[in-house]
Structure formats: C-alpha cells, structure tokens
Specification:
Layout (H helix, E strand, L loop, with lengths): L1 H17 L8 E4 H17 L5 E5 L5 E4 L1 H17 L7 E8 L2 E8 L6 H4 L22 H11 L3 E7 L3 E9 L8 E2 L4 H6 L4 H5 L1 H4 L2
Parallel strand pairs: 1-8, 2-4
Antiparallel strand pairs: 1-3, 4-5, 5-7, 6-7
Helix pairs in contact: 1-5, 2-3, 3-5
C-alpha cells in the first residue's frame, strides 16, 4: 500500500510539473530547522535498516522562500536513494551551510555508488538502475522530482559518485528573507513520525519499510 502511495504521488507530481502546474509557493521556510527535524525523524527509520543518518547544520538560521512540503520531498527522495543503493557499513551525512548568497545542502552516503555512464542519466524521467541487473529498480522519478523542485526554487542540483565508495548530492537554494512573510514553523520529529501518511513514511516506504 505504501509503495502504491509513493508511486502515485511521484507520478502525480511529475505530471503537474510537465503541465506547468507545480507553481512555487511563497512562504518563508526555516531551512535549518526543517533539516534538523526532518533528519532526526528520518534517522529513526534508517536505523531500522542499520543505516545511521546524521545531520549537521553549520549555519543555523538559514531561510529560503518556497514550499516547505516540496523541499521536504526533495530531501527525502535523495535519502531514499541512499538507503536503496546500500552496502555494508553505509551511513548518510546531511549538512547545510551558507555559501555566499545561497544555502548549500549536501547529502552524502557510503553505499554502492554509481558508474559515470549511469550517473549521466539519473535525473531523466523514468530512468531506473539496479546493481544486480533487474530491469526495474523503481519508478525512476525520484531524482527527476528533486530536479524540478530545486529548479522551481531557483536553485541547482548536482550529483557526484564513485562506484563502491558512495554518492553525494549537492543542492543550492537562494537564501530568502523573512521580511513581509511569516516564517513557517517546521514540523517536529514526533509529528512527522506520528503521521503515518506524512511524506516521511511515504517517500521512504520503498527503502526503510513501514
């Protein structure tokens, strides 16, 4: 059921972006607080499959203008990939800091990694890859949605990977200001875990279980 919810949500989001309906919400997001709370909750789920996850917010108080829900989905899709393409002793590190007039989010894992030829296609719609050669590793929309969300927020996303060593996804977002807009309060860890239909449970359902 959760896998069906995830696939339906991904496909719906993709169609909306293709039709130009995925417009950018104008709310001020406490990016630092969002990442801290979201990663605290995600770490509970990744721990269940023996993958430690740690978040380090180097510069607290980072705010961006956009959609808290969509940014949540983008981060979770990357974490989901880190969990799926895993190996022994894998762990995930999330960091956030200021880089001039932008916020820089990096999500790094120490999993199976991706070869350069495959890495060129990972943001393409419906492209999926499996290290064991299975024809369908997923719906192939996770990183496509990440790219759309980041682009809507005026940012950029890049992926670097080495087979057998791991993958790093770097997301940059223009810093916003709280002038004229109230800062959206990030959901707390307990609330994210308690809501069984939150994006946390749905996006990570195919990698961390239910």
């Amino acid at each position: 059921g959760y896998s069906m919810l995830r696939s339906a949500s991904s496909l719906t989001s993709y169609v909306k972006y293709c039709l130009g309906e995925g417009r950018r919400e104008q709310e001020t997001v406490d990016l630092s607080g969002l990442l801290e709370n979201l990663c605290d909750a995600a770490a509970i789920l990744t721990h269940s499959i023996s993958i430690p996850l740690a978040a380090t917010v180097i510069d607290p108080g980072l705010v961006v203008t956009g959609s808290q829900k969509k940014l949540t989905q983008a981060v979770l899709h990357v974490i989901s990939n880190s969990c799926r393409y895993t190996c022994e002793h894998n762990y995930i590190e999330v960091s956030a800091r200021r880089s001039e007039d932008r916020a820089l989010i990096t999500i790094s894992d120490h999993g199976l990694g991706i070869d350069p030829q495959t890495a060129e296609h990972v943001f393409e719609p419906f492209f999926s890859f499996d290290h064991q050669g299975r024809p369908f590793a997923g719906d192939g929309l996770g990183l496509t949605i990440v790219r759309y969300i980041v682009a809507q927020h005026g940012g950029s996303v890049a992926l670097t990977s080495r087979p057998g060593q791991g993958t790093t996804v770097a997301i940059t977002l223009p810093l916003g200001t709280d002038a004229g807009l109230s800062v959206k309060i990030p959901p707390m860890r307990a609330d994210l875990l308690r809501d069984r239909f939150s994006d946390l449970h749905i996006v990570l359902s195919d990698s961390c279980g239910c």
